Amino acid sequence: MSTMHNGNIAVVGAAETTEIGVLPNTSMIQLHAEAARNALADAGLGPGDIDGVATAGPLPMEVSHYLGITPRWMDGTMVGGCSFMLHVRHAAAAIAAGAATTVLITHGESGRSRIGMDRQAVLAADTASGQFEVPYGALMPYATFTVPALRFLHDRGMSRTDLAEVVVAQREWAAQNPRALRRKPITVDEVLHSSPPIAYPFSRDMCCVVTDGGGALVLTSAERAADLPVAERAVFLLGSGEAGESPVIAQMDDLGSCGAFRRASAEAFATAGVTHADVDHLMCYDAFAHLPLYMLEDLGFVGRGESGAFIASGATRPGGELPMNTNGGGLSYTHTGMYGMFAIQEAIRQLRGEAAAQVPGARVSFVQGVGLYFAAAGSLVFSNVKP
Amino acid sequence: MADGLVPRPVPETAPFWDAAKDERLLVQRCTACGRHYFYPRPFCPHCMSDDVVWDEVSGRGRLLSYVINHRPLPPAEGAQIIALVRLDEGVRLLTNIVDAEPDPEALPLDAPVSVAFQQRGEYKLPVFRLVEP
Q1: Which domains, from first to last, does chain B contain?
Q2: d(Cα B61, Cα B85) in Å, to the nearest integer?
């Protein structure tokens, strides 16, 4: 039996829904199905080839049955937007252990049009969040996920300008991507002063877009991938990590650093056997503009307090030393609610050489996800070269 | 703001909400390791001891961070200050700053704050006001 890391498991199918954005005629479950069928077609496989299904939102049985798949392995792990990072990690373990052969991971969310989404109830009033945070108005992501940001900035001598620089850098990538929702180039001054206030210090452009869409992945062993028509486009999982922290914002260990980011990413680097210098391409889940700042520091790409200057230097923009959020990110590309699937899709496109704004020669991509505000994290390291 | 989302206590958190009705702020303290902790649960999350007590705390603390939410959920209206406060006893709470201008100039980080109570359904929510140092 092989291990789950070191390139023994491959992504052989990866696709998004044919359209993303505003899709009022497609329900949530159908977005899953459309993405799944596109990913199966990408892999050159049919539903009969799939024996494992993982999803978040609907139950894996709902997605399986809708697609006519009879799974012998299921994972319904639901930890918010990074659920799909955990699904990739769990599927790799299952395939390595022989519990599944070929796994389909699906995401679909009618985040904007809210079609077929009634089950997505607000946080229950009797949970820790429901009792101790939601009654204060900390319910919508823009008024909850964002609350620690001023502390982060203040303790580092940083400011709203550092949030705006994140937006500007990512818009440069989005401008090259016809599928991105926000493509018009923007200046720091516009982000700070023209973009409508949402929840100070956040203006509208510092908050993600809200869209409908989906994505899906097909994973199998590298051994089996070598025999598929898609072999030349296979992308290999080098390492992964996952971690949990507080389900309520107030009980993060440190308002300026997320332990879940640190722990998940450290395990991903360790299991992948790569260093920061080996990473050619980075995806940092950006529901809001402060998250790439936290992640650059917590993942160790820069030191404490250096994230703002690093972004402002252009290092993450096209042509920079660490291309980041190259689809435009949640801030500019798309954000259905659980964005993690789209971060993974962009990493796969980059490593296949098929991205809208392609990073020349990218070989190693690091994907950092976050879920349910600062409560969960998942990290993946992919390569187009099997070690 | 008497309306809005109402907490639904469970047995383990009921003493907190019952005391809040009397405008008393209770926080649990572990008598084994000596630390306060929040949110309520009947054992210490630091050392797993069951020897925990409810302390009535001063309600004084410092403003750690906040957003000024210009798009609050109904029935809240206007700009709402959603804040993190650290009590002098060491625990952090998420709360609202009330009776303050929704203006960053009026809301310096680390400003001293003190608890107040706001009716919400049959309960009262601990909220905070800025106070003179």
Answers
A1: 14-130 (2.40.50.840)
A2: 6
The SS3 call for residue A251 is helix
pTM above 0.90, yes or no: yes
Confidence grade of residue B1 (pLDDT, cut at 50, 70, 90) = very low
Kindly list the residues from chain A whose CB atom is less than 8 angstroms away from the CB atom of residue B17.
131
User: For position B90, what pLDDT does the model report?
Assistant: 94
Query: For chain A, which domains are there?
Result: 9-119+211-238 (3.40.47.10), 134-208+239-383 (3.40.47.10)
Tokens, residue A210: 């809200």
- Give the residue carrying structure tokens 């699904």: A87
Q: In which element (H, E) is residue A376 found?
A: strand A376-383
User: How many cross-chain Cβ pairs, A to B, lie less than 8 Å apart?
Assistant: 120
Say yes or no for a CB contact (<8 Å) between A142 and B83. Answer: no
Angle at A261 between CA A234 and CA A317, to 5 degrees: 65
Nearest Cα to A138, choosing from B21, B87, B4? B4
pLDDT band of residue A122 (cuts 50, 70, 90) is: low
| Cα end-to-end distance, chain B, whole Å | 27
d(CA A24, CA A113): 5
Cα A100 to Cα A362: distance, rounded to the nearest angstrom: 30
Question: Mutate which of A123, A127, A131, A136 to test chain B, going by most B C-beta atoms within 10 A?
Answer: A136
Cα gap A89→A86, rounded to integer Å: 5
Cβ-based neighbours of A218, under 8 Å, separated by 6 or more: A11, A12, A13, A14, A39, A40, A42, A43, A45, A50, A102, A103, A104, A105
A75-94 residue pLDDT tens: 999 999 999 999 999 999 99
In this predicted model, what pLDDT tens digit does every residue of B13-54 receive, in sequence order?
Answer: 999 999 999 999 999 999 999 999 999 999 999 999 999 999
Tokens coding A16:
């998004």
In the block, which residue shows the tokens 């700042």?
A293
Residues in CB range of A373: below 8 A, 6 or more apart = A80, A141, A144, A145, A249
- CA gap A353, A103 in Å, rounded: 23
Q: Do the beta carbons of residue A242 and residue A376 sit within 8 Å?
A: yes
Structure tokens at B17: 């909400």
